[in-house]
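User: Predict the structure for this protein chain, please.
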Amino acid sequence: MFDTVGDIKKAVKRREGDLEDLRRRMDDDFDLWSLKEYEPASKAYEAYTTSSPKNFFNKVVDGLNRAILTITIELPEDATDEQREAAEIGELYVHGGLGAIDRTLRNRGEPPLRQSASFLMGVRGWCCFRALVYVPEGEEDTVFDVAPWDMRHVTWEQGPRGLIWAAYKRKVDNSQIQDEYGLDMGRNGETWVIDFWDGKKNCVIVRDDFAKPPKEHKIGHVPVWLGAVGAMPTMQAGTDADSTSSGSQTGSLMKYRGQSAFDASRGIYKPWNKYVAGLMDMHKKAQVGSLFHKSKGAKAKIVGDPHESFRIIPGDLNETLEPLASATAPPETGPLLKIIGEDLDQASLPNPLAFGGTNAPESGRALAIRIDATRSVFNPFTGMLSEAYTWLVEELLGQFANKGLKPADMFGFRPQESLKEDQEPFFRVTVKPEDIDPGWFVLATVEPRLPRDEENEIIMAIQATAKKPGEQPLMSKRSARGDILHVRNPDAEERRILIEEGESHPVIQARRIAKSLIDVGKHELAAEVLGALESPQGQGPGQADGASQI
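Assistant: Here is the predicted structure, written as structure tokens:
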């Protein structure tokens, strides 16, 4: 479809025009994050720039970075032990791949993938990944190359089954172009580079030439994923392109898609800065204390600041020097700032509670209200991050299995919540492409860390699982752990409980006690402990001499 540089650049430029309003909105949001200074009507006036947008943004992004990310390969309840072992290998492959991605980004001087995605979602309202799994020619190690793309510079075209093509346009130093593509663009300056992907080929354009000619990538689809934060789908403003409610000729509402951290508050900061700056002006004028000099014909002049130092000011009997009354804020200013401040609170996290402004204990009801208000801010972002990681994990699995790559030596750390009793956090395993099932159902969840009323949750779980005579409990223990107590992996938690119950069983406890006695040379006492376990039915550990075999 796109075989020439001209065709590709034409398609990219057309889409840049279609997305101009969205890109302009992204620029405005970035100005809020970077605390671009408020500019008054004249330099003679005071300027004020509130730090509120950055404080709120940092809270949102920090919440995303600290949220609990759980990635599992879901299996049916009747899955065999062999299927579960294969899925566990698949999960280790995924965790090892994600660790390799973060190491690569760190070597480039970039934040880890999740932190980059959280920041870009917060400031742009969109998330975009380009994912590749391959073995470079002449090398042995598998490369996990995942780049978080800044949606401000992404163009794409969507079809009924997904992306038709996607392009990332970035400005690169000429020295980097020479190092990466071997092209001499001169010693100084920067050049625009277009990384272009369609369903079959990939190419790189530098200026008006191919730095990397179109080449088959053998993935079978565009290895790029993008999504808009929030629930708004693609919409149009009206049914008639020549007459829409917004006045747009195309009727597109794309500029409203993608919910950045400033989605509800971006229009509030400017009037807030304006009115606070006005109050600063009045304060400054009150401090200066200008004078009103009355003279015959208003011809007399006072040179310099009469309040700078003691001085005698000569004047005629008909001349007077009076303080000039300072301007005061109208009485409506207070209520106006209160209205704007309340709107800011509603458009961000609950203040001051979300910013540590109170140490007062909260009742279960008050805590539930605050949790709900906070969750409604985080949910659009955590939901999008869950979608992004679900796609990414499926892409890592699918490309490794379908491209016929070499076995990969994976290493990293198991998630704490999935550790079994006999497992170490660090793992190293060799995974072959045939070990991966591209049809695995992947579930990625991102759960923000919010205040919890754990005492009431435990009481609810106990009540829900309590069994009365002749009746069934309302919930299973597994459901109560997951739905009420929010245990990240109920199955793993059940395994831990069973292990603890097994360790506390009298027979097991006796054997452990006996072994400890043997270790310190008290064989007779160990034999007595084991002998006490013998039952009339002969179900016991055996004769005392068995202690030496423990």
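The longest strand covers residues 162-173.
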